[in-house]
Amino acid sequence: MNTAILIATVLICLLSLAALLIWLERRLLGIWQDRLGPNRVGFLGLGQVVADMIKIFTKEDWIPPFADKGIFILAPTIVVIAMLMAFAVVPFAPDTSISNLNIGLLFFLAMSSLAAYSVMLGGYASNNKYALLGSLRAAAQTVSYEVFMGLSLMGVVLLTGSFNMSDIVLAQKEHGWFVFSQFVGFIVFLVAGIAESHRLPFDLPEAEHEIVAGFHTEYSGMKFGLFFIGEYLGVALISAVITTLFFGGWLGPEFMPPLFWFCLKTFIFICFFVLLRAAVPRPRYDQLMMFGWKVMLPISLLNLLITAALTLARAS
Amino acid sequence: MTGDSENLAALVIYFLVVLGLVALILLISHFLGHRRQDAKDYHPALNEPFESGVVSVGDARLRFSAPFFLVAIFFVIFDLEVVFLFAWVIGFEESGMPGFIEALVFILILLAGLAYLWKLGALDWGQNPKRRLGRVAMLAAEKAASAPTRDENTPETL
């Protein structure tokens, strides 16, 4: 029964969060670009979320006749399901996660890499040249950045001795936030996380000045909406995982409940993601790929080695 | 929420709920979405793939650039090796110094492999500068070989 309530709460919160993030991003971008953003519908423009939702639900459920019908429908659902599933192992507060798996971190990595299928299949099923280019780019980019996304987290696992997310948070109680002892790991994970969720500055799969809208060129209506929800869930997921692994999760001063600290830290990272979009230009695609293989991969391997050596030296 | 079976059960229930939710979203939009039966008469381009207004030629089942395959193969190689590292990291305290030395050798081999790929130019995206240089040299040699014959046929004064 407890689990049922938790599942319902998490799902309602996540879906409304994803919708709210669209408004938040437009408002914050507006502020940083010296304009207003959507502020007409309801209080502070919050009604815009509801209006957009009604609009997108009543759009035509359009499947292009040249598309591969089954895969075309399947593709956008994969990213939403994978992102929602990954939230199952995130501990929101002490003893409050949907599934306290002892391989939680591996489960998160598996789910976040499943999202690559969504983009790949979506682009292929569209039978559109721009979509094909976008999906190929996305697949190569996700696959490259995934290698060291896992590696960058291994320093944290090494210091904790567990893949369990709650254990990792509890270990930070005595050890201090891992962002201090694993700073390189944090930076590498942040970059990999941005690339995995195709956010600016690494949104080359949907770079509109080159390939229209990339893998979702042919998508419209709610199926496009699912891609969109998936992207914002991805941002929220990466922020939540960074909070859990590197910034002490729910830990914080006593005067506020643990859930408050978790939400506050996650919110700060979401805002950081939006700020990145406003502040950093896109790299070229070859630069992006070379940066991944030639800079980030060696750094994350060396980081793991040095962490292991220091831990051994301290133990002996 | 401590037992493994309970955790797994919660995960399965959650998965089913998520699946149902996504299906529901698609169904709602399918029934709410408005339909245009006669759209083809008004918008003849509606059934064409979008290519920025250019009429589409052929379909998109094209051969694509080979570096994408290379990246996929590198991924398989490196990600498999990362999986071995996962196993070492979780048993780090138990394996101690011998484990560290073995992992060190393993990671150094990995880095050597990466350096080899780097030197080969496999990590360079787009046109390979080495290959381009080779092509320029080849063209120059070709020109040098054909130059005397052309000189005989072309008049001296122009």
Characterize the main sheet of chain A: none
Largest sheet of chain B: none
Radius of gyration of chain A: 20 Å
> Which structural class do you get from the secondary structure elements of chain A?
mainly alpha
Largest interface, with counts of residues having CB < 8 Å to the other chain, equals: A-B, 78 and 68 residues
The helix tally of chain B amounts to 5
What is the mean predicted local confidence, pLDDT of chain B?
76
Helix content of chain B: over 70%
Number of strands of chain B: 0
* Residue fraction in strands of chain B: under 5%
Number of helices of chain A: 12
Order of helices and strands of chain A: HHHHHHHHHHHH
Shape of chain A: globular
What is the share of helical residues of chain A? over 70%
Average pLDDT confidence of chain A is: 85
- Radius of gyration of chain B, taken over Cα atoms and rounded to an integer in Å: 30 Å
Structural class of chain B: mainly alpha
Overview of this protein structure:
The complex is a heterodimer of chains A (316) and B (158). Chain A has 316 residues and is mainly alpha-helical. Chain A contains twelve helices and no strands. Chain A has helices at 2-32, 47-57, 69-86, 104-126, 129-160, 165-175, 178-181, 183-196, 208-211, 221-246, 258-279, 285-315. In chain A, helix 5 (129-160) packs parallel to helix 12. The relative contact order of chain A is 0.14. Helices cover 70% and strands 0% of the residues of chain B. Chain B contains five helices and no strands. Chain B has helices at 4-32, 39-42, 67-90, 92-120, 129-153. The longest helix of chain B is centred in the first third of the chain and has 29 residues, at 4-32. Classes of the chains: A mainly alpha (316), B mainly alpha (158).
